[in-house]
């Protein structure tokens, strides 16, 4: 599941940002070199961020050695591929072909090619593994909590026909479950900033120019002080008000999409995409964990929260909802 979700998210974000579908999800096509280059670049960048001594990777970068040489080659390939897409799109737009993607809007906005290239690459990087990480942990957690899974499936079944924007907006239980999953397994586990100048945090902590300051959504999501005694339990109901609406928590308590002026620009899109995938799958299929893999999976902190060994599920066509509910009531 993890691999399928990652491939799907990559195709989706390329379609939205670049207006092209690399077909990474289609196993019958040859491997996408662009997707591979993004993989290599993000894995090596994540290792840079986690390295205890920066001097080592900086020296390797200066000499173009090892992983730094690979990173340079991956970045070169990504830049060249995106520049090629920009050139082709410019020609198409000049001929009057209509395009709705981010790239075309930036071209029409008159930005320089290098600026456009870097902006669309940022979007691909930001959107390619985040929603898939959230969904991987979502499907796993729901398989551990069948009552929540039944509620989500019921809600998805009630939205008969097309899962359009409005139908997805109305899915409150699904949204609550996604928030609860991201509280326990935030796709971005931690996030660092470097101080541009000396500063003092609201609690009086002094920060010097150049200091690295990290906030830790994974730790905050499991903090008893913030979430109460049952902070380690999966309880999607904490996200539902008495009237059934989703509780809007402060981003400073739930900083999964960051807080302040530079919050995630793709949050709304991420929810639409995650709800669409979750509802489409769960209204048709039941997903169970493989018997041999029932223990808690290990989390690998790459740039996003990766599940070690992937997510292996047994997929079955869902029976009619009534018979599921009856079976659950009789046991
Ligand atoms: C569950 C999914 C997602 C999560 C948890 C998430 C989380 C985050 C976080 C924590 C940041 C702040 C990073 C930083 O500045 O240090 C961020 C920024 C950003 N995200 Fe997301 N993201 C998600 C999905 C997406 C998607 C699908 C897109 C694109 C459509 C996107 C686009 C962006 C962009 C462009 C920024 C940079 C904003 C800025 O610097 O002003 N994100 N996201």
UniProtKB/TrEMBL annotation:
Keyword Oxidoreductase recorded: yes
InterPro entries according to UniProt: Cyt_P450, Cyt_P450_E_grp-I, Cyt_P450_sf
Cited Pfam families: p450 (PF00067)
GO molecular function: heme binding; iron ion binding; monooxygenase activity; oxidoreductase activity, acting on paired donors, with incorporation or reduction of molecular oxygen
Residues bound to heme: 264
Family membership noted in the UniProt record: Belongs to the cytochrome P450 family.
Protein name: Cytochrome P450
Organismal lineage: Eukaryota, Viridiplantae, Streptophyta, Embryophyta, Tracheophyta
